[in-house]
Amino acid sequence: MSKCVGIIGVGNMGEALLAGLIQSGHPASQICITDKREDHAAALASQYGVTNQSASGIAAECEIILVVVKPQDLTSTLESLKPTLGPRASILSFVAGKTIAGIEAIVGGSHGVIRVMPNTPTLIGKGMSAISPGTHTTQDDLGFARHFLGSSGKVVEVEERLQDAVTATSGSGPAYFFAFVEAMIEGATKLGLSHEVATELTVQTLIGAAGMLAESGKDAKTLRENVTSPNGTTAAALTSFQAADLESMVHQAMQAAAKRSAELA
C-alpha cells in the first residue's frame, strides 16, 4: 500500500514535485497538499486529483512530508506540524540552507529527515537534485526520495556538509546560465542582429552545445578544444574571456552563493 505523502507549500517548485510524484506512479489519492494561498491549493487539488488538507492534518496523516517553503518560514512551519506529527513521519526538506540538525531539533523524536537541493529545471522534468540523509533516515525513505525525484531529472547523494556547494552549483546554476544567455543576446543585438534572431541563434546554440556535452561522451574541455581553431574566431572570443578572468569571476560567484547558503542556516 502506498504511503500518504504531504506537500507543504505548492508554489512553482512544490507543484513540480507534486507532478513528479504522480509521474513516478504514486497514486493521487495518497497525496495531500497545503499552501498559504488556500485558493491556489484548492485549484491544484482539483487539477491533480489530490486532497487539499490543513498542515496539521498532513502532519497527523502523512508518513512522508515534503516541506517546500521559504527559509524564513521553515521554523514556524515545523512548529505548526509538531503537535500532530505522526511518530513515524519523515520529512524531506527542500529549504535552501537549512540544516538537518536544525530541523531535527525542532521536530524532536526519531523522525527521519532528508535534506534536498533541487533546481528549477525540475519544472520541465530535467531537474538536478542532491539529497543528504539525517540521523534517523531509513533506506526505505531514501529509496522513495530517489525514485520520485528521479522522475523529474537526476539525483545524487552527498554528505550534508557539501549541500552549500551543491546550492552554488546546481541550485543557483540555472540563473548563471540565463544571465549568460541574456548577455549573448544583448551582444548579438549590438552586432546588428534583431532581438528575435539573436534569441533564436543563442538559445538553439546553447541547447545544441548542452546536448553534445550530455550525449557525445566527451568532456567540456575536449569539446571546447575541438571547436577552437588556432587564430580563429572562437580563439579570439576565448582569449577575451581569459583576459577578463572568466574562471575567477565564476568561482567568486559560486563562493558567494555557497556563503549565502551557509548564512541561511
**First-residue to last-residue Cα separation:** 36 Å
Q: Which H/E pattern describes the elements?
A: EHEHEHEHEHEEHEHHHHHH
CATH superfamily of the largest domain: NAD(P)-binding Rossmann-like Domain
Protein structure class: alpha/beta
Number of strands: 8
Question: How many DSSP H or I helices?
Answer: 12
Overall geometry comes to: elongated
Summed over residues and divided by their number, the pLDDT gives a mean of: 95
- Radius of gyration, in Å, reads 21 Å
Helicity, as a percent range:
40-55%
The total tally of domains equals 2
CATH-defined architecture of the largest domain:
3-Layer(aba) Sandwich
Low-confidence stretches: none
Key phrases:
265 residues; alpha/beta; Rossmann fold; ProC C-terminal domain-like fold; 12 helices; 8 strands
Verbal overview:
The chain contains twelve helices and eight strands. The mean pLDDT is 95. The radius of gyration is 21 Å and the shape is elongated. It has helices spanning 12-23, 38-48, 55-61, 74-81, 100-107, 139-150, 163-171, 173-190, 195-215, 220-227, 233-243, 246-263, and strands at residues 5-8, 31-34, 51-52, 64-67, 90-93, 113-117, 127-133, 153-157. The protein has an eight-stranded mixed β-sheet, sandwiched between helices. The protein starts with a strand and ends with a helix. β4 (64-67), α4 and β5 (90-93) form a beta-alpha-beta unit. The protein has two domains: 5-163, Rossmann fold; 173-263, ProC C-terminal domain-like fold (Orthogonal Bundle). The chain has 265 residues and is an alpha/beta fold. α7 packs across α12 and α8 (173-190) packs across α9 (195-215). The relative contact order is 0.09.
